[in-house]
Amino acid sequence: MRVLFVYPEHYLNIGIPGGISMLSANLKKHGHDTALVDTTFMKVDPEFDSRTFDARAMHQKLHGGLGEKEADTAVVAPMKRTVYTIEDLVRDDPVVTYQEQFQAAIDSFKPNLIAISSMTSTFDFVMGLLRSVDYDCPVIAGGIHPTIAADDCMSQTEIDIACYGEADNTMVELCDLMEAGKDYTNVKSMIFRMPDGSIKRNPPAPRVDNEELPCPDWGLFDRRHLFRPFDGKIYAGSFYIQSRGCPMQCTYCVDSTVAAMTGGHAGYFRHQKPEITIRHLTELQEKFGVNWIKFADDSFLLPKMSHLEELGEGLKRLGIQFGCSVMPNTITEDKVRLAREMGCVAMSVGVESGNADIRRMVKRNYKDDILVERLKIVQKYGIRLSTFNIIGFPGETRENVFETINLTRRIGTSACNVYILFPYPGTPIQIEHKIPIRDESGNMLPVSKAKDLGLSKMPPDELEGLQHTFNLYLHMPKELWPLVRLAEVSDRRGVAIRGMIQRFIVNYLSGDSPESVPLNTVVPPAKIGQGRPTAAIPRALSDIYRLDMTDEEFETVTNAFADYEGTHITRDPTEVYREATA
Ligand code: B12
Ligand code: SF4
After folding, report:
1. pLDDT at 73 > cutoff 50
2. How would residue 79 be classed by pLDDT, with cut points 50, 70 and 90?
């Protein structure tokens, strides 16, 4: 069987997905042939593609932009500059259309099955892609959206089969039966559109033994997925997952629902032996020169010390540096020390909220002091720490968001990924608050609508403003917070101020020496009050005086600069690392 996978990823959102790479490896192992259509590196012309079909417009609605660099980058943590950036990877690429690329793949590969892998946020986009091409074979959809919203998936008449949960073995079974011309509509964990138009939903398949699977098929993907800038250097690597499922049940996540629908919580979480991980990574290193891995497991430090020690021996032999996610309750000094020795250079931790009641509500029940103490251990060992934070939880107030900002400042991370809560289908919060999957016009509720759902006590603009400025509040000295406050408003001026503050922070993190200029060189003397002409204004921020400001704002900004004594921005963890390892 020839299976054509479709990976509908955002432009330049690089990284090899575990799902397709594992399915492809297992299909090949069982004698099937695979190919891939991947939108990650498709440089499209917005005008042309929107005339061809609506995929780009759809993507624009879903993600607020595709194909261009986001003008406002403040949502993402400011990082050190690298000499070569992700845009350089595609600088010389021709402009293409999704339709042409997809059609060309169909025409040359002549698939017997089109297999799309989709998250909720990419589902309408991939359906747009599918409708733009001609093909003559069944279509199967899998991944988290078909898993959690199978009815929504089957409501699209182009989909013949939806698969819920893992498909490593069932996909092979399906292809074997199809190839042999036998009835394949009894394959478990799959939902079939029958010839009479009815829908047949089969019971869940037994859980996959992830120790028996071959090494993920990274060769199917464009090598540029392996681009890994870190701390000013460039490495080669991608995601690798050693486990299936998760033992936690956070209420903003789909995992507890997936566990329930695929056979219950018992046996849902499975972790493979270290020797399997090492065998796969050795193969990936030999084939692709891998020297950097992002472990996509939900908690890298969860296994016992003996397991981690064995894994560490192998990783040290391979000389692979890695990043991983960890749950705070699994952090101990021994494990962190060991992780560092194994080659861990970055850890991300879901801190989510700085308010203990909210954390309890979403089943992330840790005490502030414990969080701070444990995350300091991570930094003590020179591991770059990044946190994940969510704002906009049900009932959350502006004060609660500042509790989160202040807790994150106490923790001392300077890389924080902040999201507005979006209740994905199947999450306990989505179910409890009856958030629809699609809007009145039948479009998937876009992630950009998260602010409008009315779950928190903040109006949409305030919530969005706080998301855009969260990292700026995190880094900037408190005296300069009045500037950040002005940047919360998403008008031209607010966006310009965000850019200025962002550059100020990036310059600082990149080691540029901070320069100041006297106030009287940036504003006309008439504007300056008594005794302030020589007040020092950081040069990188002085353009704020070129923007329109009311007299009151002028006073607030100038007073903020007057109170500001130097450049004590929240420190870059790499400095902590250098000190720790000096
Ligand atoms: C690595 C990762 C990413 C990577 C790679 C994505 C990918 N497609 O793998 C990147 C960084 C791109 C990413 C981005 C995002 N992610 Co993510 N990600 C993950 C993570 C941690 C691991 C994925 C993985 O490798 N799993 C292991 C493999 C084996 O499982 P799998 O992918 O589910 O595949 C199996 C089955 O689903 C099925 N299957 C998969 N594809 C197909 C196709 C066919 C035809 C068939 C039959 C079966 C099938 O078989 C596979 C093997 O058994 C998961 C959590 C998780 N543990 O799965 C979240 C997860 C998928 N991400 C999630 C989210 C929310 C996001 C973001 C929106 C985050 C954000 N706010 O920016 C973005 C969305 C990007 C976008 N395009 O819209 C949610 C998805 C929720 C939803 N309803 O869509 C998840 C489930 C996390 C969570 N628990 O909430 N993510
Ligand atoms: S949010 Fe992470 S830790 Fe919580 S249940 Fe989901 S995957 Fe597990």
Report:
1. no
2. low
Instruction: Find out whether 390 and 358 touch, Cβ atoms under 8 Å.
Output: no
**Ligand 1 site, residue 214, Cβ cutoff 6 A:** no
323 lines ligand 1 (CB under 6 A): no
Q: What is the DSSP letter of 511?
A: T
Q: If pLDDT is split at 50, 70 and 90, which confidence band does 82 have?
A: low
pTM over 0.85: yes
Q: Which two tokens stand for residue 547?
A: 């923007």
Contact 154, 193 (CB under 8 A): yes
Measured by CA distance, the residue closest to atom 88 of ligand 1 is: 253
Confidence of residue 564 (pLDDT cuts 50, 70, 90): confident
Q: Using the mean position of ligand 2's atoms as its centre, give its distance from the Cα of residue 110 in Å.
A: 39
Q: Which of the listed residues 428, 459, 475 is the one where a domain comes to its end? A: 475
- Tell me, using a 6 A CB cutoff, whether residue 270 lines ligand 1: no
Q: Whose CA is nearest to atom 24 of ligand 1?
A: 18
Q: Above 60 in pLDDT, residue 427?
A: yes
Verify whether ligand 1 is closer than 6 Å to residue 163 (CB atom).
yes
The CA R_g of the chain, rounded to the nearest whole Å, is: 25
Measured in Å, residue 255 CA sits from the centre of ligand 2 at 6
CATH of the domain at 408: 3.20.20.70
Task: Judge whether residue 575 has pLDDT over 90.
Answer: no
Q: Which helix (H) or strand (E) holds 24?
A: helix 18-29
Instruction: Measure 561 CA to ligand 1 centroid, in angstroms.
Output: 45
Cα 15 to averaged position of ligand 2 atoms, centre (Å): 20
User: Where is the domain boundary, 475, 490, 522?
Assistant: 475
Q: Is 234 helix (H, G, I), strand (E, B) or coil?
A: strand
Ligand number nearest to the C-alpha of 329: 2
Q: Match 């692979």 to its residue by tokens.
A: 320
On whether both 161 and 144 belong to a single domain, the answer is: yes
Residues 77 and 169 in one domain: no
Q: Domain span at residue 26? A: 2-50+91-212
Per the CB < 8 A criterion, the answer to whether 367 and 356 are in contact is yes
Buried b (16+ CB within 10 A) or exposed e, 208-227: bebeebbbbbbebbeeebbb
Give the C-alpha separation, 294 to 414, whole Å.
19
From 60, 86, 117, give the residue whose CB has the most ligand 1 atoms within 8 Å, as the site to mutate. Answer: 117
Ligand 1 near 424 CB (within 6 A): yes
Residue 121 Cβ inside 6 Å of ligand 1? The answer reads yes
